[in-house]
Amino acid sequence: MQRTAHTNDIPAKERDWNDVRRLLPAAWHRGRTQRPSGAVRIASAATPLSEHFKLTSQEAMVDLKGKVALVTGATSGIGQVTAEYLAEHGATVILGVRNTDAGKKLAQEIMAKYPGSKAECGPPLDLMKQDSVKAFAEAINKRPGSLDILVNNAGLGYTKKSFTEQGVGMLTQVNHLGPYTLTRLLEKKLVASKARVVNVVSVTHRITTIRDAKALFTDWKGGFYQHNKLANVYTAFELQRRLGARGLQAVAADPGAVRTNIYNNSPKLGRGFIKTMIDNCYAPPEDGAQAVIYAATCDWAADQRKRKDGSPLQPAEDLRYYARGVFTWPQLCNDWALGGKGIKKVKGDIWGASTVVLSFLDWPLRRLLGNGLMGRTKLCRPGSHAYDADMSAQVWEASAEFAGVPVQPQV
Ligand SMILES: NC(=O)c1ccc[n+]([C@@H]2O[C@H](COP(=O)([O-])OP(=O)(O)OC[C@H]3O[C@@H](n4cnc5c(N)ncnc54)[C@H](OP(=O)(O)O)[C@@H]3O)[C@@H](O)[C@H]2O)c1
């Protein structure tokens, strides 16, 4: 909805909300770089993205000079900010996007903004089509040099009920099977490069379980967004279990609640009161991308956890989930904190509702209280079911079957 100069032209609902906003402290408005309801744009052309990261000044990042990073879904939102940040800090960034005109334009914009930076648009990558994923992976495999960072970011929040020719629900195809296939087809190059793989996940994985791995693909309701995001966590963990000892580093990163285009298509979230809440209470992409950027660039060894007896975790046990803000709070995030098995008695929808309410509090709290410790990306626990190694392996195996790749990594 475009804002105009004449108050009378502004719909009553938005006018009311503007009145409320004027009463809020200045801190609320700081850092708002995106217009409500507007398409997401990265920070102003004159401002380096690193300016937006000063508040939390993240811990030591690995040197990105000479590294090659592939970011999928880089045409908007979190992926766009991530790609720009990695290029700003010296990585050669490949944009894995379906709209290559937008990708080429973005690559040019990034290189113009950061003289000496390197960004290129890869061949078209449409995660709705396995053929496109395979052709894209082939081109990346043929590209000389390493592939040091893969950010599986592209995703859809909602789509009308539809299935691929293979009978896979379209949401699962885009959010899980496409990225899984891409990662598996690149695994040899990734292992050879001792790469970092970041799966962009969501707090919604906490409000659901996957009971039947095949249903994730073929049953429409079994393949909703939250199931896909749980499958993304499983895939990150399974990659780490299977290839961690070979030097691959795989993590899940939750960007939090971020106002991006992802909500625009949803009939429930893309309009009305909820949309107004999202536009005003969710973080801008420059903020939300921090967790993803941190997961992609942090010093792996420095973040290594230890066992209770002080001995280091083996790579296959080093299952990492990064998040920030309220999404790291034990009361929200660790179901064991609410009484272990007791949590099973709480109905999923109550749990889900509380997650939604907290998602509206995260950014406002960080704006009002200061980003400080709450703004830091931290290692935390995902929902405890994400550690279910049996289900994780079942999802991996079913994914391999649908992707047409061997279950065992070919490295
Ligand atoms: N926003 C949040 O609150 C939030 C919270 C937790 C997790 N996440 C995750 O963050 C990731 C990025 O989402 P976002 O919020 O930044 O949303 P976004 O602005 O809508 O970005 C999504 C990106 O994915 C791309 N994409 C969609 N369908 C695709 C397809 N079939 N093939 C290739 N690329 C496709 C889009 O490309 P087009 O421009 O061509 O459509 C776009 O570049 C997603 O994985 C999402 O699940 C978001």
Helical percentage: 40-55%
Give the helix/strand class.
alpha/beta
Q: Give the helices and strands as they follow along the chain.
A: HHEHEHEHEHEHHEHHEHHEH
CATH-level-2 architecture of the domain at 49-257 and 285-324 and 376-403: 3-Layer(aba) Sandwich
Number-wise, the strands total 8
Distance separating the two termini: 50 Å
Strand neighbour order, sheet with most strands: 3-2-1-4-5-6-7-8
CATH H level of the domain at 49-257 and 285-324 and 376-403: which superfamily?
Answer: NAD(P)-binding Rossmann-like Domain
Sheet with most strands: 8 strands, mixed
**Percentage of residues in strands:** 5-15%
Task: Work out the helix count.
Answer: 13
Multimerization status: single chain
Give the ligands present: NADP nicotinamide-adenine-dinucleotide phosphate
The overall pLDDT average reads: 84
CATH topology of the domain at 49-257 and 285-324 and 376-403: Rossmann fold
> Compute the gyration radius: what is it?
21 Å
Overall shape: globular
Question: Can you identify the CATH class of the domain at 49-257 and 285-324 and 376-403?
Answer: Alpha Beta
Low-confidence stretches: 1-44, 337-343
